[in-house]
Amino acid sequence: MNFDPTEGQLRWRDLARDFARTEIAPRAAQLDREQKFPYDIVAEMARLGLMGLTLPEEYGGSGGDFVGYNLALEEISRADTSVGITMEAHISLGCAPLAAYGTPEQKERYLAPCASGESLWAFGLTEENAGTDAGGTETTAEIEGGEWVVNGSKKWITNGGTDITAGVTAIARTGLRENGKPELTAIILPQSTPGFSRGPGYEKLGWRASDQRQLYFEGCRVPEENTLGERGRGFSQFLQTLDAGRVAVGALSVGLAQACLDEALSRAKERHQFGRAIAEFQAIQFKLADMAMEVEIARNMVLKAAWMKDQGRPFGREASMAKVFASETAKRAADQAVQIWGGEGFMEGSAVARYWRQVKINEIGEGTSEINRQIIARSLLTESPEEVKTKLTAQ
């Protein structure tokens, strides 16, 4: 086994790390406080190739691999998860389905401006009664005169309403299957489509400088050619999209957990009690050791899942494992960071207080921890113990 990243992967990691440290981290507290989308930061990330990192070069992307993307995303999220989720949702949820399932014409028209980072693209799955349960989708689309007529709404859609958002790929009910279950189809809806409107941005605990809002479709008409992939394949497409997204949210969580460890280490060395730094007390040392071990494990889980995707191997179970463990690691790290900072960590102005607010959403977005545990358990129960062991240890 070789755990060394390639030169290309290290270049992406180091590029993201340098940019995050110099341009994002110094403004993270202000971005959180003002809750304004950082257009200038996103524009510079686009110029550096970060906003199209895994997307095809022929359409303006950077052509990087999935491991390099997750290494870079960790560094961006280490500085600020608001910027991290903007990058993740644009690449993993918005653009990746266009790249995977789009026709050459669709890629040229919709993917190219987004792959370069000039525009953002969103993915519309979640509704009031649908998300993980895609069968509850109430947004509908019907063919009339060669056009899809889309009606319904989506909620909690990241990058759905910025000034540079070009559109959304929405999952809609387009009929019933023979077994009585809904037929789901992915449909491309440009932002300028008549009848397409957006609600105000949400007031959130975390990700406060990123854009999440409701989207509304009232008689939105787009050509039938705006079907992404095959009609009725929307369910399969969103499952594959979420697998990759879960790995990326794992990387985002590792970045936040590492930021918590950074702050905890700094505080433990600087604060003195009873005539010595609190880092010299065993109780604090054990907290730091546990945080470091969990961050390292989570990082390796994320990178293994990313590597499996790059190798073309099935990685759904590993994606869920990485997402659950990394998000829960980040929560424990945030809690311990506040504990080590003590009263100062309870103050809104401290970085660890901001991390503590931000961390909870990682256990919810891209599939809750409960749903991902079900995915893991079901995959274990459908295979023999030897098959499970082989897959879990394969490199």
UniProtKB/TrEMBL annotation:
Domain Acyl-CoA oxidase/dehydrogenase middle, residue spans: 122-220
Pfam family, one: Acyl-CoA_dh_1
Gene3D superfamilies noted in UniProt: Acyl-CoA dehydrogenase/oxidase, N-terminal domain, Butyryl-CoA Dehydrogenase, subunit A, domain 2, Butyryl-CoA Dehydrogenase, subunit A, domain 3
GO molecular function: acyl-CoA dehydrogenase activity; flavin adenine dinucleotide binding
Residue ranges of every copy of the Acyl-CoA dehydrogenase/oxidase N-terminal domain listed in the record: 6-118
Domain Acyl-CoA dehydrogenase/oxidase C-terminal, residue spans: 232-381
Entry annotated with the keyword Cell division: no
Required co-factors: FAD
Keywords: FAD, Flavoprotein, Oxidoreductase
Family according to the record: Belongs to the acyl-CoA dehydrogenase family.
Protein name: Acyl-CoA dehydrogenase
Species this chain originates from: Rubrobacter tropicus
